[in-house]
Amino acid sequence: MSFLALSSGPLLSNDVISFDIANLGRSFFQSTLDGLEWGAIYALVAVGYTLVYGVLRLINFAHSEVFMAGMFGQYAALMALGFTPNGNAYNEGPVMTILYLGIAMLAGMAVSCVVAVSLERVAYRPLRKRSAPPLVFLITAIGASFVLQEFVHFVLPNLTGQTLGGVNAQQPIKLVNREELFSVGDGSVSNLTLILVLSALVLTGITDIIVNRTKFGRGIRAVAQDPTTATLMGVSRERVIMLTFAIGGILAGAAALLYTLKIPNGIIFNGGFILGIKAFSAAVLGGIGNLRGALLGGLILGVAENWGQYIFGNNWKDVIAFALLVLVLMFRPTGILGEKLGRARA
Amino acid sequence: MSQPDPNQPTTSGDPLLEISNMAVAYGRIEALHGISLTVNPGELVTLIGANGAGKTTTMRAISGILPLSSGRVIFDGRDITRMKAHQRVAAGIIQAPEGRGVFPGMTVQENLDMGHYARKFDSKADYDEALERVYSLFPRLLERRKQAGGTMSGGEQQMLAIGRALMARPRLLLLDEPSMGLAPMIIQQIFRIISEINQQGTTILLVEQNAQQALSRSDRAYIMETGEVIKTGVGKELLVDPSVKEAYLGVGADSGSDTSRAAAPAAGAVAGGAAGAAERPDLRK
Fold it and tell me: Which of B165, B189, B210 is where one domain is finished?
């Protein structure tokens, strides 16, 4: 019997935990594809954590709210274009769909970018000027996270005539229905799978090129590796920090659109919280401070938690993700790829 | 305590760098108590002093990464006291910092390219020319062009730090202890190259503990002690000054003998630093 019930009592009944490898076997490709979709979203958000950590040694816990702001940003843009949330997918042909997706993604990117850069200006920069200790930055990050959430929770509805924000999730505006394109084994590769995974690969690829091949990127790496010498070479640390927040915000905004394609009713004030923690875990898993680590960590985390979900049961998805993080950190504290962006100051 | 007048330029004309009564504090502790010094165009000027005398603090303040609590810094006739660090690089002041500051995760070529981050080249030809100059001064860097900076030896990293600074085509090159931690033979080589760079027309302000080498190659020198300039003069004259000899050259004031070992002066300077200012002969006479 492949099914293992740990207890027959109500506390540990079959519903609570199971151990069913065969179940994973039956749905191996489907769970992997689903994991890659999640991983794509984690990876894009993880880049923001890892870049900011690289240059500031700061875990920007408010990054999950940068992502959340992106969801509202793209939603607002679609409303401005005349879409109404009626629950049905719009179909004006593939060209228009791609156009609308592009506009929504740009709007999400723009809003997230502005929120990320403003956050840096308002919350972190004044602390740097006063050379505040790291703990103060961390507490500020958590505080900023709540401020942004509660802004969307209580203030935004009043500013927008109850159309945006508030206690409930937004009614979905669906741009794309999931449709199977072809199947691999038991799994179905849908249009959404391709959009999510390809977008993540392209965007992280572009970011990688910017950081490793351009002059801007050299400035970012210089500040990450040795901030004092970077300043002596004429790199403006403040400008690099701003740029870093901007890039992280842009990718989080892209992730926000992808997330709403996958989870159409996920647009809510606290909708970034768990996803942010997962993305942060992905960044640590891959090696925080390491750009390629963020992509790898995101994909591994996404796939692993979906596999785990099929083995142990639906409710264990989050537990798997964090247990994996703990395990990796026990045996490899620098993450899978190690810290690279700021190797100088390990 | 009265300050001796340190400004005795050996060449005429306007100085390239003029520092007057510069004071710098770390929090409440003042590290520089109002020092003044000048560097004239084309000169090689050295700052000498024991550990903690304020040499590196002076260099960092000139580069703009430490704020002045009082005093002024004039560069090329322009008051740059409040200018930001990256703007000073753009204006032509670049530093090869203490400890070299090579970016460990960048290749040699990428490190060199950091040198002109804030000083753009007008054309590809200018860039090629500058790069060729650096590679001809330091052929070793050419061999290791694609190697990560962090994997190189101390001497190679120092060459890289100087070469990187040259890529900025500096009007004033600041070198902070280029001989630190290097073998005597490498030190000789580095100093030869520093002289060569200076003779090619680059103005240099050098901080050194290796007083013997530095004084013999400089036009002028300032001697610093506990945050003040206590003596200044022509390099070669200070080399034979009895009090300087005793304090910084590891030779007794009355022995008069020349030391041929390159390591001896450095050892003497370190010992002098360890002994502290109290045991050193009074240089303010």
Answer: B165
Q: Which residues of A touch B89 (CB under 8 A)?
A: 232-234
pTM of the model: 0.85
Cβ atoms of B98 and B180 closer than 8 Å: yes
Whether residues B176 and B252 share a domain: the answer is yes
A216: nearest CA partner in chain B: B117
Q: What pLDDT shows up at residue B236?
A: 87
ipTM: 0.82
Q: Which of residues 226-285 of A touch B (CB under 8 A)?
A: 226, 228-236
Q: How far is B128 from chain A (nearest CA, A)?
A: 17
B197 and B264 fall within a common domain: yes
Regions in chain A scoring below 50 on pLDDT = 1-13, 342-346
Are residue B244 and residue B123 in the same domain, yes or no? Answer: no
Segment (H or E) for A116: helix A94-119
For residue B240, which phi and psi values (nearest 5 degrees)? -105, 5
Whether residue B53 is found in the same domain as residue B119 = no
Domain that holds residue B125: 106-165
Q: What angle do CA A288, A248, A210 make, to 5 degrees?
A: 85
User: Do residue A234 and residue B101 have CB atoms under 8 angstroms apart?
Assistant: no
Same domain, B175 and B266: yes
